[in-house]
Specification:
By secondary structure, the chain is mainly beta. Helices cover 0% and strands 49% of the residues. The chain has no helices and ten strands. The strands form three sheets. The chain has a four-stranded antiparallel sheet with strand order 1-2-3-4, with no helix packed on it. Strands 5-6-9 form a three-stranded antiparallel sheet, with no helix packed on it. Strands 8-7-10 form a three-stranded antiparallel sheet, with no helix packed on it. A hairpin with a 2-residue loop joins β5 and β6.
């Protein structure tokens, strides 16, 4: 279930006050991804993707039990009505090139070692992100 729109500061608040801990917030233009450790013990980390709308962040998709990606490993891949994304970790300041369903993006790994790539598409329903054929990532 998605929650109400939030401001920048609220991106860093867990959806489970008192127990949860936000482990990372990653931004790329009008998108942001939040890794929320719901119990604070690292066993149940959820990923929420937000889009900037009307001066606030609107939650647009949510994935339960995603875990935290490790540096330079395969990124988390996700799709929802209208877009696909990849989020991962790398060496701070380095570049990352992603190819998402035929769209190439070159981005920079932020100071905390995180990156986010989002591609809007009308063909999300037909994607099979898990076989790897629609996503590749190159660091460096």
């Amino acid at each position: 279930m998605l929650v109400r729109m939030v401001d920048d500061e609220e991106l860093w608040r867990s959806s489970v006050p008192g127990y949860g801990v936000v482990r990372a917030v990653v931004r790329n233009g009008s998108y942001a991804a939040r890794f929320d450790d719901l119990n604070g013990d690292g066993r149940e980390v959820c990923l929420t993707l937000f889009a900037w709308a009307d001066g606030r962040w609107e939650p647009i998709s949510y994935w339960d039990d995603t875990d935290l990606p490790r540096p330079d490993e395969s990124a988390l891949r996700c799709a929802w009505g209208g877009a696909i994304c990849a989020v991962g970790r790398g060496t701070p300041g380095s570049t990352v090139t992603t190819w998402l369903d035929g769209h190439t993006q070159v981005g920079q790994v932020d100071d905390e070692g995180w990156w986010l790539s989002v591609v809007e598409t009308d063909e999300v329903e037909e994607l099979d992100l898990w076989d790897g054929s629609r996503l590749w990532i190159r660091y460096g």
